[in-house]
Amino acid sequence: xxxxxxxxxxxxxxxxxxxxxxxxxxxxxxxxxxxxxxxxxxxxxxxxxxxxxxxxxxxxxxxxxxxxxxxxxxxxxxxxxxxxxxxxxxxxxxxxxxxxxxxxxxxxxxxxxxxxxxxxxxxxxxxxxxxxxxxxxxxxxxxxxxxxxxxxxxxxxxxxxxxxxxxxxxxxxxxxxxxxxxxxxxxxxxxxxxxxxxxxxxxxxxxxxxxxxxxxxxxxxxxxxxxxxxxxxxxxxxxxxxxxxxxxxxxxxxxxxxxxxxxxxxxxxxxxxxxxxxxxxxxxxxxxxxxxxxxxxxxxxxxxxxxxxxxxxx
Length: 314
Fold this sequence. Notes:
The chain is mainly alpha-helical. 70% of the residues lie in helices and 1% in strands. The chain contains 13 helices and 2 strands. It has helices spanning 2-8, 11-36, 44-62, 65-89, 94-117, 143-147, 152-170, 172-182, 184-189, 194-220, 232-242, 247-268, 277-295; strands at residues 132-133, 149-150. The protein has a two-stranded antiparallel ribbon with strand order 1-2. Helix 2 (11-36) runs antiparallel to helix 10 (194-220), helix 2 (11-36) crosses helix 11 and helix 3 packs antiparallel against helix 4 (65-89).
């Protein structure tokens, strides 16, 4: 236990928490926007995987990291539009369509990867983003090297949380999103385009999921592997509930999950060889299940979540 505690109270541990939380923050914010508009996106796992593949491929072929990020964001937005087409425009089951998007996106990612790169004995890799220290702030003891000496996408995630809160609570569009997620009939009577607003929210959510996938393949692993996402999309859905559909709380939930995940990695490295490593791998997911079970009892979801809007029906 002393060895574990010694590793926890290190700058590297805090930096690892922030890096692990970054893709979760992007994905959770994306799912939150979609659900606040009344659309559950269970396609998040597949969207992240396909975006990670397209971002990695674009970077590998072009040599430009930012072009890869753009490709991942556009992929996520496109798959979000596909999900919105079926669930918003056609009013089909959000559960079924979301699972379909995940299966389709996952299969397409594997197919395209094999088609482009083939079956190589050594998987291809790319040169990742380099850390970007912020002058003065990065010199703060402990906190500086961990928080202000990170990658560009990490800073984007930090900025995305207050920006999402501002957009959701302080802009007319954010008010429209909340209206169509709570009472689409009233929103329609007030002149808000329910279908258009839901489309926009789901597409924005898909773009943020694309950023999460880009971070995984272009920063965290520098490569694309079939187990890249490893359930992070499903975790993000749980974190939305845990965060009660609020950007700040959702970001806090992502940090809490990242803390548990970073802790289990340190516990694996602490020399506790008599405990199977699978037991440590389970810890973050057990925490997520327990936290969601506890928080979901009092959580109030958007009233129109999972309910399709058909203007002709009253």
